[in-house]
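Interim report to the steering committee. The following record documents the input for Pyridoxal phosphate homeostasis protein (241 residues).
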Amino acid sequence: MAIPPVLSDPRFSDLPARLQSVHARMDEACALYGRPAGTVQLLCVSKTQPAAAIRAAHALGERHFGENYVQEALDKMTELADLQPPPIWHLIGPLQANKTRVVAEAFDWVHSVDRLRIAERLSNQRPAERAPLQVCLQVNISGEDSKHGVSPQDCLDLANSVAALPRLRLRGLMAIPAPAEGFEAQRQAHRQLAALMHALNTQGLQLDTLSMGMSADLEAAVAEGAHWVRIGTALFGARPG
Ligand SMILES: *Cc1c(COP(=O)(O)O)cnc(C)c1O
């Protein structure tokens, strides 16, 4: 098979090794913590990286890409419209009400829903011909003032409301814990998110997805049950700008 030209671009010469190393970290953590193979998926976080970086990761077999900024993501989608199979697009950044329509039209997943008004708009605006939008609720698991996310206390009410929206499929919870020193400290926030999802499920919800773990705490997240790890720096290197 011909090597796609983007893989001879010197900007991405490290990508094959970095990708292999991230998959090895995931596989080793799964083996160590008793997670069946294939239960953790890689979301390649491509924010601020050029569209060509996504093209390169796609050529190496990756399909799921996470973006934080709506307009930047839409520009990349246009530039990458020729990719087959098409990339699966995940919004992982904060979402303003005035951007919900384009997000409902263009994305497959939104991990960062943290209030009902946004969820209602996404449901109303999801095109009829597309599958329901997959969503996670972003939880402010570390209780930081500055962070987006619903509080753990308010999560059940929000989850019940979002689960009832016809054009969304509520899949689970997402968190960006405060940075923590050391493996045990990292595990704690992830364990809290997993416990919260379990608690919601005992209240009648049917959630199956924990979106947690980034470059620095992937193993701790896998140990506590992550289904998506969202990896940027470890794949693409330091972000430009
Ligand atoms: C940037 C970002 C990531 C990736 O972080 P890295 O440390 O570069 O792996 C994951 N999740 C969210 C929500 C982000 O904004």
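The first helix runs from residue 15 to 32. The committee is asked to note this result when reviewing the revised timeline.
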